[in-house]
Amino acid sequence: MQVHHTVTKFTYLYLFCFRVLQFCTIPLDTAKVRLQLQRKTSTGDGSIPKYRGLLGTVATIAMEEGLAALWKGITAGLHRQFIYGGLRIGLYEPVKTFMVGSDFVGDIPLYQKILAAFITGAIAIAVANPTDLVKVRLQAEGKLPNGLPGRYAGALDAYFTIIRQEGLGALWTGLGPNIARNAIINAAELASYDQVKQTILQIPGFMDNVFTHLLAGLGAGFLAVCIGSPIDVVKSRMMGDSLYKSTLECFIKTLKNEGFSAFYKGFLPNFGRLGSWNVIMFLTLEQVKRIFTREVYYD
Question: In which ranges do the Solcar repeats occur (predicted)?
């Protein structure tokens, strides 16, 4: 009972940390979405893009729309983390146990951990897709002409408006790339964290401590963004507007019109956000694991 109480307590602490982190990093996410949705002009007139880089995008949004605009979509973002984060955390251990069997003894193979993370990430985001869609829609809405109201008054209004105008199924727009993005990033984070941590511990002077966990978390975040950024751009564009009829069309048009580099738009704010998430996630999980192991030992 004591072990179960400890795990439950730290699960709640873990989710609380992510709520705080969501609030602190939403400006980076908003900047990322604006950069990903910005298309290269084809007029050849030498016009400068509206959003340029992380700091330039944040400054432009703050000056044109007010500082609060950087937190557009925060309510839907919290909805997303509550559903997606909770399912991803809650399902990972049961899925992993189901794959190897309840009688399994020893270290679970890395490929099965990756597969479990891939499956749980896909299931979690399939359920949470409506929250992600609303978050992106709210973040994508920039400065409007004076007197012209926004499409949505807030997150709840966005849910109901989308259902009323586009149908219930519209809440799952971009589901394909969203599942691919979160499943791939989940698997990439897990595999790369273990590998980076193992590599760091082979360097003389490094120990299995908080500093090593921090470096490994940043490394996992960087590799996850490198792998997941192209599908993340496609996901944002599918959700942000209705120009594309399919994921494949979005990918092909983006590649044809803007080149491969377009798939890494918003890389810096994306890494700033995902890197922070990984550091907090793995630091917390490492501490939970140590306390859990200690309590099992002393029980």
Answer: 8-98, 108-199, 208-291
